[in-house]
Every structure is written in C-alpha cells, then in structure tokens.
Amino acid sequence: MKHWIAALAAVAGLALHGTSQAQNYPDHAITWIVPFAPGGPTDAMARNIALRVAQELKQSIVIENVAGAGGTIGSGRAARAAPDGYTFLVGHIGYMAAGPSLYKHLSYDPVKDFKAVFRFPDTPLVLLVGEKSPYKTVSDLIADAKARPGAINFGNAGVGSTSHLVAALFASQAGIQITPIAYKGAGPALNDLMGGQVNAMFDQTNTALPQTRGGKVRALGLTSNTTMAQFPGVPTVAEKAIPGFQVSTWYGLYAPKGTPDAVVSTMYDAYRRALQDQAFTSQMTGQGIQLLTDAEYAPAAFQAFTAQEVQRWAGVIKQAGITLE
Q: Where is the signal peptide, in residue numbers (predicted)?
C-alpha cells in the first residue's frame, strides 16, 4: 500500500511539474531552425515572423541556419530535437511536402515526426516570359507547347526546387510537354529569361515583383486563387487557362513530435495576436505575400494540409520522373 501511495504521489508531482512548466513557458530563448543559409526567402520570412512572435511571447527567438541537402539536414536535426518547446522547425513546401518523394533515404517523416504549429502567409508564383516574348497570355503559351511538344523550355531554380515542381504540375494539368532547365538559383534563371535564352519560368511573386515593374519580364498568370493588386491586369492561371490550378510556396512552423499541446497553443496564440497588427500584415501583402484565414493557418488545419501536400507532390514528382538521388 505504501509503495502504491508513493507511486501516486510521484505521478502527481510530475503532473504538477509539467503544469508549472507550461504556465511559465517560455522562460528562456527559443530556437527556430531554418534549413537554409542566411539571406534567402525562407530565412527572411522566418526572421520577420520570429521577430513579431517574440514580441508577443516576451521572449527572444533565435534563428539557427542549418543548410544542406535542400533543407533536409536541418529538418532531420529538428525532428530529433528534445520536444520541450524550445526547438522548432521552419518548414517549407520543398523539404516538408516534396522531400519524401525526392529523397529515397529521408531521415524524418514530415507528418509523423512533427506537430504543426502554424502556417505562415503563402507566397504565390507567377508565370513569367521575357519582354520580347511572343506569348501574351497563358493560353498562347499552352497552344504553342501543344503544337511543338518539348520545344518550350522553362527555367527553374534547381532540380526539385519549387519553380521546377510547379512547372511540372503546370505541364501535367495543361497536357503539354516542356523542357526544364535547372539553374543554381532563381536569379540566374531570371537573367536568362530576360536575355531570351529561356522561354518561360515560374517565380515567387515577392521576388518577381521588381522585375515585372521594371518591364524586363511580362507576367502572364498567377498561381493564386485570386488576382493580386500588386500585379494589376494579371489574371490567375485558373481563370484563364487551367480551371482549378492553384499552388503557392508555403512555409510554416513545426515542433518535434511529443511537444506538449500547451506549448503549441502558446506559440500559435502569439502568432495569431501578431497577425492583428495591420502594419505587420501590410508589410507582407505589399511584397506580394498572401495572407490566410485562421481556418487555414491553425495547427490542426496545417497538419492536415501537410499530409495532403505530401500526397499531392508525390504524384507530380512520379509523373515527371524527378529525383535527387
């Protein structure tokens, strides 16, 4: 009997300790792992949001850049981190959705090894052609591609990059054959697009915006589900050419599996409060970033979305025969 009572007391003590930890969370700096080098779009997005969330938490958030293997090295490290609420992963469509199909020996499962915390605002893409291109609409490009299978090339930021995958999805849904040309980053691809060596490419709206305003490239269609004020007169691909076509570069915050629900809720609530700051959200929308509804960025919705995206890109990658190993 004494042993039984002692065991109960120990369990109760652990429960109280856990409750106390949740109530005091966070009591020291939090780390967000970004699996890319500093200075890129994922890093910039993460730092912008982390700064604002940290203000709500009244605790610092440190960005740790763990680059390599398309984001999979840093993701693997985050998956193995202690689930104590002090290490998180900044996820991305590439290594959290396409990764399982691009890499045969991934050290983590995006769905089973993580708990979704919240989804960042989306960054749609835009189909671009050079200023001297004969294509004035998405339909023009599709019609020519059907007449000349494989003759039209699409530049991309590298094999397995978002721009590569979106072009593959576009070709599949349009029923055309294109020739992908991989570059070491979106910048070199965009330069060749402007120079006429590349026929077309998909680029993120936030990075494409300065080039379209400068007149060096022409935007034919957006991959978002609605038009955007930052791209006046540019329709969506869905409304003019491929019904239902919609895709964005998405990001979000994940915690290692086993992280307490109370911690996830605290982090999510801080983000939700940050989104009530109009100056913060206006800064993002002004750059061509698209805000989401609470029903889209909340933990449960983001967890379900991640699983759906893994399946979606598995089909696209298999059909296009894309592999990184």
A: 1-22
What architecture does CATH give domain 2-122+250-320?
Answer: 3-Layer(aba) Sandwich (3.40)
Contact 31, 87 (CB under 8 A): yes
* Side chain identity at residue 124, one-letter code: P
Angle at 36 between CA 34 and CA 37, to 5 degrees: 110
As a whole number of angstroms, the distance between CA 299 and CA 229 comes to: 29
Q: If we measure between CA atoms, which residue out of 318, 239, 264 comes closest to residue 117?
A: 264
Q: Which two tokens stand for residue 49?
A: 């949001």
Directed axis angle between helix 186-195 and helix 205-214, to 10°?
30
Preceding amide of 235 cis, omega within 30: no
- Rounded Cα distance between 201 and 119, Å, is 26
Nearest residue to 233 via CA among 222, 242, 224: 222
**Sign of the dihedral through C-alpha 109, 112, 116, 119:** positive
Q: Where are the domains of the chain?
A: 2-122+250-320, 124-248
> 118 with 302: CB under 8 angstroms?
yes
Does 124-248 match 2-122+250-320 at the fold level?
A: yes
Q: How many residues are present in the chain? A: 325
Beta strands 114-119 and 179-182 are: unpaired
Q: What is the pTM of this model?
A: 0.90
CATH number for the domain whose boundaries are 124-248: 3.40.190.10
